[in-house]
Write a structure and sequence with these properties.
The chain is an alpha/beta fold. Helices cover 33% and strands 25% of the residues. The chain has a single domain, classed as Rossmann fold (3-Layer(aba) Sandwich). Strand 5, helix 3 (99-111) and strand 6 (119-124) form a beta-alpha-beta unit.
């Protein structure tokens, strides 16, 4: 079984940083990594991180393909292709931006028909941002919310495990 998890959010929200930290945390399980960036450190096109992990019982191996969407507006046309077959979604919210700005990324999720995909919210940049978890909970209701400082690795693995659990539960329910 292979699960495809998408990290989506505004430009500079921390999507690539999440994948970089996951590559460090799960270094023994990395099977492939594709990343291309500009000289300013911005992602060009998309990031891909492939992991091969064992279940808790150790009897099954699960492939996990993690993708990011390019946050820059000029790459918007590519997102429809990237949003293809997705088993789980992490919506990376930027605490330094307004709720209204962050909701633009969620509007794309709905626009491309992913509102039924298991989703976890990550409120990133908690060390420097003013957007409160309470504001996010009011806007998104029961969607699982994880707080993070991805640059320091805080909340990154927890977010990944949460979306993985949601995606696996959805697969099990679907049969």
């Amino acid at each position: 079984m292979t699960l495809r998890i998408l990290y989506h959010g505004l430009g500079m929200a921390g999507k690539t940083t999440n994948l970089e930290k996951l590559r460090e945390i799960y270094s023994d399980y990395v099977s492939d990594r594709i990343h291309q960036q500009t000289s300013e450190g911005r992602t060009v096109y998309l990031d891909i991180l492939s992991l091969s992990i064992k279940t808790r019982s150790g009897d099954k191996e699960i492939g996990v393909e993690l993708f990011t969407t390019p946050g820059q507006e000029r790459f918007r046309i590519l997102r429809k292709w990237i949003f293809g077959r997705v088993d789980g979604l992490v919506l990376v919210l930027d605490s330094t931006r307004s709720l209204e700005e962050n909701l633009r990324a969620y509007e794309e999720v709905k626009e491309y028909g992913l509102s039924g995909v298991p989703m976890v919210l990550q409120l990133n940049k908690r060390d420097v941002g003013n957007l409160s978890p309470e504001e996010v909970r009011v806007a998104f209701g029961d969607v699982p919310l994880m707080e993070a400082v991805a640059i320091a690795g805080m909340g990154v693995a927890e977010t990944f495990r949460a979306v993985l659990k949601e995606a696996l539960n959805a697969k099990a329910t679907a049969g």
